[in-house]
């Protein structure tokens, strides 16, 4: 399975660049007062916006949950800084060549490191994985989460999770002996090693969970096999992690303590950063210009695309010409510079250019051009917008979304002469309707779980796709997806996705507008931060790299103890 | 009097039941459920998790079950906070919000009464006008703006105070200020008005005519009477303050019950919504009762017979 | 029937005298002037603004005050002065109509409870207890979440949590007035309950009720701002003061003038309504008119108006 590694090459390059840039930004403190000495106080203070709903790795799904869980557990595999798959608890990455993967691609035999241990000193065995996977598909446990269906190609998994006559014992994960794990698949899944490197696929301790079924993630009961252990949790205030003294992975952290400070408000978090209470925080869009080029700024692209989405089943947005007209009426450069404070990349492409299968020129024929936009709208039967019905954009009520909707509203009014209303809902009410396609037009983004068009196209744009809320259906596109799903050759597969992607853009099933950047401030004395495009918070895949440097003569702003 | 208080307390039970029923009905009428978030839960997972929390049962059954739990003192668990019991969440939040609220109440009474009395005694003086300006400003600048102003000044620029959190005295200063501005303004206004009313009452004139020293007149005769109207507003103010302020708690990252309350509604965390609502209702009812009783104590002209 | 109208005289006299007393109160008159001015500005906003409240100058975002933009521009380069003017329409409308809803509901419940039999009274007052104890913020959030955010929904929701005080006030007044001579006289002359309410009770109890409502207007404007901060504001792009002040929050370190102008607008309104309210109370409220009776006990129907409404804002 060399494939899985080479896939990520182009991405890796971009990531390496980002890592270097971040390193530079951190190295050169603005006042030049950072030394190369390690600080005696190896503590990194990270801001999170709210309490994690859960610290159960099988249920963790949101940034603050994922970020923390990643530090607490190691699964079979992990990523290197270029997002290549590396062995973690596994002794090596299985391939067909080394005999780890059977020729039919259905059986994985994985040898485990004998020295991997839990934080209480007990060895990590194959049985811990067997238990974890049985739990992952258990309707009373992991199958209440967001990610178990990444792994339902494992035989018996779907039957158990979907309550179709399966059982825990039927899940195709077995322990040959303490150090050998066997995974049997119902269908080939070439991306399995990547998926097994993600947080939901970590081992779990049956004895601990059964002893404390309701609070096994409480600090007093917690047992993990990652570089950090859960040391304290003050609800609504902060979560404290400490270096795991019995960590075995070879990437033992320099940091002794990781503190997650809960600060709900973005502006207040920025103030906390300015007062040296936290070591990193995101820069709110209105403040972006103040910190652009600041020595403490860390900025790198995300694998995320914001787009105008349509209900393509209903008039007037069932007409691709109308959607094309809208795409040509949006000044994306102005959007990024005004609404996003210049942070991000204007785009006409759904797939980010720095992703495998991405193409920077995709969709450029439908970029901003008010003249052409009006012509298209005339072609659709609405000269100067005459007769175009008033329609509604439904959004989640937060400030950026509101400003975005107001911007788009004005663009469409000025450039096309059409009237868009804005409807604001809270998150739950919005997604309740969004998931069933109950909207005319909306504004939403897709963020990569893993870096492959496989995660970006078939589910969203296939007629039967699980996340196709658009009602979009194009038989040609479906056909290309079907071919790509079974195509073994990577280049050929990406080419198929590229053709589908361009058809989708030509149809303007969605109107991509921009790819956001992660834009953070990181204290000058935080060194070794390595970011990737899959980070929930900057550098959270490689927290073990981070070190705190000694400050020089110039003392940082006074902070209260 | 005792019978009256008992009757009022007894009446709390049907009020709480009615509030519980209304809340339950309304919160389930709100579109969207606890699992409708920015990431889409697989449909099977929705079924599994609904079943796990009993949300797949008919609403009347769920409500009945809730009431039975309530009778046993079981408020259920939070969907959004790793299954923490709602009673734990409430207990923690109330402790924090209660402390913050009582501090703010104390500060606003002290500041408000002092300003109000001073403004009334030196009517149309600089103090009087300053009080008017203060109470207008404090009452019309929203607490999030005032709080942010404090943060930018004392934390971002002067580095005197921590930006937020809860536990040390330094951490309490700005939130208490932000929270007490509005009630202090209000108390100042009411105190000033009622002091002016008392100023030309017969008994004050009599006291003065008897040659009592001015501060004795002010303290013993005027303040005592002038504070009766203030007492009536302190009850609702106390209820408002100790039940927590979402805005101040959100801004200063304080783990209080006000924040819990508002986030539970937006996250459809049904158990927490019910728990916080019942707690709020109880505080309001008790605060009003306490005011009425206090009122009777300071003003013997009031007699309570039966309630209704 | 002329004789029945004749005995209603005390109320009319109170109104005339009230106006005289009010007009002697300079602060109150100034407040009224400002309110009228603001209302006029709001009414004629489309003719007084500079280019419209939603027109975006994408080349001039977050500009400080200048000759081109008197009060500066927001993040999308919209003229803050124009937005404030138009915001006055929304915010004043929310303030006035909210109190209208509260008044209508409160008067209706209070009158029926006061005039009805013991059972009706008990029933209505217990319902009022429940409504009073119900957390205002929760009720507003739930109603807006169910029915969506719009000016009319906001008015209805805030109105629905503000009527209890007025209902109690009205009921207490009715109970007191019921025993007054002129009412007894009217009843003896065969007037119906409805007629008594309309001709004798309403004019007499309107004073304190209007005072309560006057204090309620700025509270409602304030509540709208708090709701906008929580994420339950009116949908854009229509500017309300609550929206403007909320938007100014995140740009406070970059464009503090936006916070200043929107807060000033709210402060001015607040101050005007307060002084008008004070003036009206002195002029109309019979309790303050006759100072010998002060301080008067109002345990059940004490003036909870402001704190009760401000609970939303906090």
What does this structure look like?
The complex is a heterotrimer of chains A (561), B (308) and C (314). Chain A is of the alpha+beta class. Chain A is built from 17 helices and 21 strands. The longest helix of chain A has 19 residues, at 9-27. Chain B is built from twelve helices and no strands. Chain B has 308 residues and is mostly helical. In chain C, 54% of the residues are buried. Classes of the chains: A alpha+beta (561), B mainly alpha (308), C mainly alpha (314). Chains in contact: A-B, A-C, B-C. Chains B and C meet through helix 1, helix 5, helix 6, helix 7 and helix 9 of B and helix 6, helix 7, helix 10, helix 11 and helix 12 of C.
Can you summarize this structure?
By secondary structure, chain A is α+β, with helices and mostly antiparallel strands. Chain A has 17 helices and 21 strands. Chain A has a six-stranded mixed sheet with strand order 14-18-13-17-15-16, with helices on both faces.
Instruction: Quote the average pLDDT of chain A.
Output: 88
- Count of extended strands of chain A: 21
Q: What is the mean pLDDT of chain B?
A: 87
- Relative helix content of chain B: over 70%
Radius of gyration of chain A: 24 Å
Order of helices and strands of chain B: HHHHHHHHHHHH
In DSSP terms (H or I, runs of 4 or more residues), the helix count of chain A works out at 17
The proportion of residues in beta strands of chain B is under 5%
Largest sheet of chain A: 6 strands, mixed
* Rounded radius of gyration of chain B (Å): 24 Å
Helix amount of chain A, in percent? 25-40%
Low-pLDDT residue spans of chain B: none
N-C termini distance of chain A: 52 Å
In angstroms, what separates the terminal alpha carbons of chain B?
14 Å
Shape of chain B: flat
Number of strands of chain B: 0
Main sheet record of chain B: none
